[in-house]
Amino acid sequence: MKPLIAGNWKMHGAPDWYDYPSRFNALLPENDRKALDILMCPPALFIESLVRKSSELNIHVGAQNCHAETSGAHTGEISTEMLKSVGARFVIVGHSERRADGEMDADILAKALAAIRGGITPIVCVGETLLERESGHANNVVTAQLVASLGGVDLTTGPEIVVAYEPVWAIGTGMTATPDDIVAMHARIRAYVGPKIRILYGGSVKPNNAKEILKAPNVNGALIGGASLDMDSFAAIAKAAL
Ligand code: 13P
After folding, report:
1. Beta partners for residue 199, in sequence order
2. What residue numbers bound the domain in which 190 lies?
3. pLDDT number for residue 55
4. CA of 119 relative to ligand 1 center, distance in Å
5. Ligand 1 atom at minimal distance to the Cα of residue 203
6. Nearest Cα to 94, choosing from 82, 102, 83, 86?
7. Would you state the pLDDT for residue 155?
8. Which atom of ligand 1 is nearest to the CA of 202?
9. CATH number of the domain encompassing residue 146
10. Structure pTM?
11. Half-sphere exposure of 180 (CA within 13 A, CB side)
């Protein structure tokens, strides 16, 4: 399975970041990363300019959210069809920062189905909080999220769906799950999604821990926040996947 190295820029970026794909390419040229898929997910309004600069470099661009409907009276929202029309190939759905703002599994399922319908690949995020882990509920929480946010999705299609395991307590904290915890949770997710779906790990992935994380069984790439904003560290993480 081709590893997917994905950067979630969150609410960071500016118009002049359009040159990040070429800066990345200078550090890890296309010829040297044919074994990888590289993805940058900037804020939605920068997608189009980034696509223009990245498509020739074979770097994918994705969104961080979408609406479940194609069009309609939904102020401030963007449909998957709109994202696709400007060149987005992936969309993150159900990120814990959005779940914390009230996004529910049912919303996430609707968005994942909308993405598939719209022809872009959803990256469906799951992960437990620190309280849930410490109280021994991590497995149940993640399984429940998988069932509720992927129920009805055809998981036999392979690369058209990605799952990201992001323990909430590891995001932006510098803490990562232990290799044993990652292996155990990814095996559990693999048992649910079957053999064809890529499973990413996310949560404080940095150049110094990427190799160990990315070599774990059933880790098919990474979803990277802070370290994806700096092309030196993003490229270093991608190199660790080679
Ligand atoms: P950090 O890599 O900054 O911990 O963020 C992870 C994340 O939330 C990616 O979606």
Report:
1. 163
2. 4-240
3. 87
4. 25
5. 4
6. 102
7. 92
8. 6
9. 3.20.20.70
10. 0.97
11. 0
Ligand 1: centre distance to CA 162 (Å): 16
Q: How close is the Cα of 147 to the center of ligand 1, in Å? A: 23
B/e letters for 152-180, b = 16+ CB within 10 Å, e = fewer, are ebebeeeebbbbbbbbbbbbeeeebbeee
Residues (pLDDT < 70) of the chain are none
The domain total for the chain is: 1
Strands 90-93 and 4-8: unpaired
pLDDT score of 224: 98
Measured CA to CA, the distance from residue 6 to residue 100 in angstroms comes to 21
Can you tell me which residue has the tokens 């309280």?
131
- How many CA atoms lie within 13 Å of 71's alpha carbon, on the beta-carbon side? 2
pLDDT for residue 157: 81
Among candidate residues 15, 93, 79, the one with its CA nearest the CA of residue 48:
15
For the chain, the distance separating the N- and C-terminal CA atoms, rounded to the nearest angstrom, is 12
